[in-house]
Amino acid sequence: MRKVLLAALVFGLAACGTAGGEEPVEVAGLSVNLGPDQKRVTATKDDKIASKVPEKFRTKGELTIGGSAGTAPPLRFYATDDKTVIGVETDIASLVADVLGLKPKLEVSSWENLFVGLDSGAYDLGLSNITVTEARKEKYDFATYRLDTLAFEAKKGGTWKVKEPKDVAGKVIAVSSGTNQEKILVDWSTQNVAAGLKATDIKYFQNSSDYYLALQSGRIDAYLGPNPTSAYHAATSGQTEVIGNFSGGATVQGKIAVTTKKDSGLVTPVQEALNQLIANGKYAEVLKRWGLSDEAVPTSEINPQGLPKS
To answer: What is the DSSP letter of 160?
Structure first.
């Protein structure tokens, strides 16, 4: 419910063109700030945890944190100045950096280039709704901080609901390339074909606006993406609705994680920082701020079971 309230509020502010986004607005106990001055929740440095950060990062004095910014609230998106990146992902990134005694340097990247940046060392960490998968664990280390929930979004007013794989048989569904939701959809389609059902016609577009145009024109039946963004778009557009929710891990509970290059030495202090933030309530404060309390994890884990390989 908080996600819908957040979405409605964000839409109202944008439609009015108000500069009031810089000041938090209270709706049903949820504070929303769309301005560049986020007045973020902050934390204090923990010397013991910070000492575990490899020297090359401590010497630099900052953490370069990559992520995409084209998504809708409340994940990672642009503030009212159209240049400052805000959202739950940036808040978590800043909190972790606080505990480690480092300055967060928030960089914007496309989804594909985010991993290229991690591979090259251009980014120390990735915080961009990244799900732990068994394939990714071969190249990256993960410290979890949120549950991964996906949503099927379709035109409003229909009777079609998605509860299991057979419900997508013969449907035209859009999904972002290279994501765990793509893998789930491909696996479901393969499963359906093996059972004698029609394959799912999977479509790909460059931007979220392209997906929504295709949805409204009837070129696709649904879009499969992160639940927070689908709930936001459904509430703000008034033209779509969420017709099914699933764990981003399909057969296992999907988990969103801070991502770093394997064996960089950062995953342990990052995990310990997250667990401290969970214990002292700062983590819960940030999730509540963005209406994502229902996606909280009780503890951060290093490299837990991820989405299985094909």
So the answer is: -
236, 234, 301, 230: which is closest to 268 by C-alpha? Answer: 301
Residues 163-198 as b/e (b if ≥16 CB within 10 A, e otherwise) read: eebebbbebebbbbeebbbebbbebbbeebeeeeee
Structure tokens of 76? 């990672």
Query: What are the tens digits of pLDDT across the range 216-257?
Result: 999 999 999 988 888 777 876 788 999 999 887 666 788 999
Bridge partners for 27 per DSSP: 30
**Spatial separation of the C-alpha atoms in residues 310 and 303, rounded to whole Å:** 19
The residue ranking higher by pLDDT, 267 or 179, is 267
As a whole number of angstroms, the distance between CA 106 and CA 251 comes to 33
CA distance 145 to 132: 11
Q: State how far the alpha carbon of 236 is from the alpha carbons of 6, 13, 158, 266, 301, in Å.
A: 10, 11, 18, 38, 34
What are the structure tokens assigned to 157, written together? 């007013």
Separation between Cα atoms, residue 79 and residue 173, nearest integer Å:
30
Q: What token pair was written down for 225? A: 């993406």
